[in-house]
Structure of Sporulation protein SsgA:
Amino acid sequence: MARNWTDQDGRRYPLAVPADTNAGAGGSVGAYLLHRIKPHLPPWLGVAGAGLAGVLGHERWANSAGAGVGLTLASVALTGTTWWVGRTTGKQRRLHSAITVAAGSAWLTAACLAGPTTGPVDDLYLMGGPGVALSWNVRMVMRRNEGAGEGSDADKGLLEKVGLARAQIGTAKVEPNRVTAPVGLDAGTQTNEDMSKALSHIASALDLPTSAVRYTPDPGSARRGELVIVPEDMLAEVVEWEGPSNLGGSIADPLVIGRYDDGAPLLLWLPGDPEEGRNSTHLLIAGGTGSGKGDAALNLLTEILSRRDVIVWFSDPKAFQDFAPLRPGLDWGEEGGAGTEVMVEAFQAVIPDRTRWLGAHGYRQWVPEAAQQQNSPERTCRDDGRPCGCPGMPFLVGWFEEAANTLRALGDDAFTGIAQEARSAGAALIVSLQRPSYDQMSTSTRASLPSVIALGCDARDEGFSLPDTVLAAGAHPGEWGNRRPGYCYCVSPGIPEDRYPSPGRTWRFTGRAVSVMELLATWSQRNGAKADPVTAGSAARIAGQLYTGRTGPDADQTALSVVEDDDMDNGPHVDPEDADIDPEAELPEPEQGDDTPIFGQESGRKPSPEEARRLLDDALAEFEDEGRMIVGPKDFTDWCDRNSLSRSWVSKRLKEAAQEGRLEPTSSTGRWRIVPALTVA
């Protein structure tokens, strides 16, 4: 039996299905006909009852003046009561009911006083009674077969309650746990905005949560749209993640990260599709503490890593607390700080190189064919038109988890350049943070992130996550807060716009998922894409040895040597830096800056230009060996103390090194990127 619910006017959504639609199939034809006729019998039983009451009343009250007065008053009272009770229904039903009661009570009064067979009384009964009964039968049939634009009394009563009395609801399309009905508002007096404002009142009238009622305006009309009602929340049940949906597929295939409230899969695309007319996109994942943002990220990352033609650069200042099992499958992973700063610079640097490669091979945007070896004459970078055989270029995903940390360190526009330019380079930027407010992320960056997974948040932050049009259509992540982890709205190219205000829920990750994630990371190491020479070369040019690319599962891992305190007695008792000093030699002559500084002056000596260049080259090489490719004056604090140099001297020398090509300025003021020594050479 189909699940259904009933509004205050008695209308059911979806229409009730008889518990036994085949009743009588194994019995007589009469039983079957009786089963089909039963819904239409009540009006006829009412007519028969009125006739019987007239006969019995005449036997008792014939020619009684007192009975005449009483019956007349009762008739008027009953008619008035019917009209008063019908004020909450539609106008047609109210008028029809009052006329039926008035006609029936008037005939009954005449029959009781004059007799059911006197004069025209019996003729009125024989002609009017069937007419009234048939009128209600016709009304019942019409209620189930309403024409588009002819809303039922129940619909009009519902809309009248919410201040839209003149609006009309057309024929409803009934699907499993979803009812969609076209709405036509009154021309000249009502707009789609009025309907959007009334959604919470409609949900109240139907006794449903606010998120269960949505309205999608017609782009070609200011007063037409579709009202969507989902009577049952199918997201209440927690469903655990069981593994990727399309292992070995392409990143261009849909990523399945959960399901909608009507049971449909929650899909997302990152690359564009020129045949479908879908643009590539960047993604914002936003949600407050406890909203399930970590599970949403795991759903998306596992889907990405299960594809054969994509590489991922991932930054997580929380030291991969949630993502540790997947870390081996990443092409590049950093835990925040200086490494993330280098990753941002490298991501920005690879964009023009990747764009140039795609253009040279005839791609206006990245498609799966670009990830394969270029053996087609139509996809060649050679001037003679012969196949070039260039290695393919996999799709690139740059993911910055807990991005508020990175934005505080690099500035609110750290991702602006990437967000505005990376889509044409076959790359997607994913930014995850709790509150994407404009004091954390620049408006330019936010405007360049067209897709969003909006989880529960503070009601005041809804406008930071979702477009105003989606909020007006009924989406309200602030209603959940952190009470419903995993509930989300998804706005992205490729998703039908009427799905934007539909809530979904991501799969839940538990401890049982860890072993599957580890297997997925191993599969990605062995079968996933490796960075193409263009991307790897650009990254190495910026990051030096900090970028190693994805290693295989059997690669040798360099172990860090740790010296225990108990072994210190067996080692040298002289600092290695002082090993070549002759303890008997005379001390050198004092140099400028070696004396005690005067108050207000900076300590530290000032070396000669030749020594300064050598010292800075040694310092930059040391930083490069450590993988610290982004530096500034504050990074030289310990180095200055160790070499007795002034900090003001370092600032001036950094500018000279930039002029010589050893350093390049970054998007952050006062920060410099070390150009690897081999690149300079």
About this structure: The mean pLDDT is 82. The domain at 603-681 is CATH 1.10.10.10 (Arc Repressor Mutant, subunit A). The chain has four domains: 5-144, 153-229, 255-543, 603-681. The radius of gyration is 39 Å.
